[in-house]
Amino acid sequence: MCEPTEDLVRASAGNALEEVVTSVDLVARSSNFLYRLETASGAAYSLRVPRLRPPVLSPFWQHLQDVFGLRYGTQLLSVGPILRAVDEDGLLQAPRPVAGTTVGDRPAYIFTWLEGTSREPDEFPDSTEVHERLGEYVARLHLRTYDTYGTLTEQAIDPAEFVTRTNASMRDTIARFWSHRPDIGAWFERHAAATDPDVFAGHLAPIMPDISGNQFVYHAGTLAGVVDLDSYVVGPRELELAVVETCLTRPEDFRRGYESVLPLPRFAEFRAYCRFWMLVCEGAGDPDVDEFLTHRTYFA
Ligand SMILES: Nc1ncnc2c1ncn2[C@@H]1O[C@H](COP(=O)(O)OP(=O)(O)O)[C@@H](O)[C@H]1O
Ligand SMILES: [Mg+2]
Q1: What are 240-271's pLDDT values in tens digits?
Q2: Nearest-CA neighbor of 239 among 275, 214, 264?
Q3: How many CB atoms lie within 10 A of CB 289?
Q4: Domain CATH number, residue 222
Q5: Ligand 2 centroid distance, CA of 214 (Å)
Q6: Which UniProt keywords apply (predicted)?
Q7: What is the residue-wise DSSP string for 175-233?
Q8: Residue 252: inside a domain, yes or no?
Q9: Closest to 32 (Cα-Cα) out of 7, 61, 12
Q10: How many helices (H) and strands (E) in the chain?
């Protein structure tokens, strides 16, 4: 999708907010065109315009649709459960939904802006305080357990289906995006297809499958807020833990924070499968499979 013009964003947001929008800054363009808005009263908001147009999704969003039932583009209408959980736990701030609108023919969502410093890299900053708080934040959400999995608002899928669904979706993505890499297809057939579904059946909870350092903002030396709510689903905690492990710079501090709430599970059983899923989701580039599956391996 080409980028919406500043005038269009200003007009759409002004109508939705019923206020004059005095500044419009494009701050990110990955899954969303992400704008910071300021209005005449001095309030600041984020405006999110989903960039992809279903049915053509990226491998990651296609997986979330196939495996969890997440509807890319409208999932932000259903973030109430995660906002309530984050509020209850009281560790981090989260953006409040303010209005839904359209920018041209695209849906768009306005949230409050969180004060704090943003971060570009996936890695979390080299800080004990940040990692402990992150570990505790993730673990407190993992205390909310479910018997079935799905989206934040509808969990109708039996966990015994998780591996079958993930494999079906990966098989499709490999055929579409990785036909030039027979080693990726071979790893899938040899290992992914043989994965024990029970590894993922034990602990379903709210998870962010693309958790990384730039989904949060930072303030006064610690983690202050979670800003990217797009991908929250209810699913196996192992998936989120395997993803976050690749972004940690102080794993022992993360462990301390997590284990102040819950014991960490054994990573050996699920790491390679989840890492392979992450690799398949990249959909491009020339990754070294062994390196991808083993770098930043911290937990037993
Ligand atoms: N409500 C918000 N308050 C403060 N910063 C935000 C907010 N929303 C987004 N950001 C900033 O924009 C960046 C990209 O936002 P994000 O929600 O991760 O978009 P995307 O879905 O495109 O990944 C974040 O790293 C953060 O710095
Ligand atoms: Mg993001």
Answers
A1: 999 999 999 999 999 999 999 999 999 999 99
A2: 275
A3: 16
A4: 3.90.1200.10
A5: 6
A6: Kinase, Transferase
A7: HHH-TT-HHHHHHHHHTGGG--GGGGTS-EEEE-TT--GGGEEEETTEEEEE---TT-E
A8: yes
A9: 61
A10: 10, 11
